[in-house]
## 1
Amino acid sequence: MDADLVRALSEKMVTFLQTGTIPEGLFRPDIFLDLTMPTWRVQAAGAEELIAERKQGHPGPGKVTRWRADPTPTGFVFEERWGPRGPAVVLAGDDARGSGRRQDSRAHRLLHW
């Protein structure tokens, strides 16, 4: 995946995570979320369900204190950290740190663990 596109999508992802608002061009309408935490799992199909899960699980604004994105042949890996001591979270990509794919210039699948 093109490094400039990865950076653009990653910056939009940070905006989404911090505000709960999806920037134009971030997700396809048929986005699929598979969120796995240590003791529970959430799945959402479609942008509206994904927004609802974000707002239910983290209703207020937040701050991504640092992030990293690496292109892969079929997508990218995105890691972010909330707060100075919060655990790193992995979103999107297709290697050992996460899984996801891109079709056109928008994300269409996010796996998180």
## 2
Amino acid sequence: MTDPPASPWERMRAEKRRRIVWWMWLVTWLLLLAGLYDRRYYEIVAWFTAGHALLFLALNRFRFAAFPVQVRIVYLVWATAGAWVPYLLARVILTPPTGGRFKPSPPRPAP
């Protein structure tokens, strides 16, 4: 039995893969920090993570068995739950790099 052809992710140089992953997680981290100021940024984190997951699905030929895809899908569920389920602070507490050192700001009243 022959191995399936390499995915675009597997054909990419390791340095380029590391750079893509690093920048995507940095943007996510910065948005999480902004969410400590204003909870609306958590919605942006969820949408950005959805795009992140779709990109990795496409780069891995929509194979859910690829570990990078599994990590992004689980994080997407985690970020989505944290963005839209009221008072779900576990996502903020357990999500690095804050590690529970910061408490999110309370929701602002509607004008």
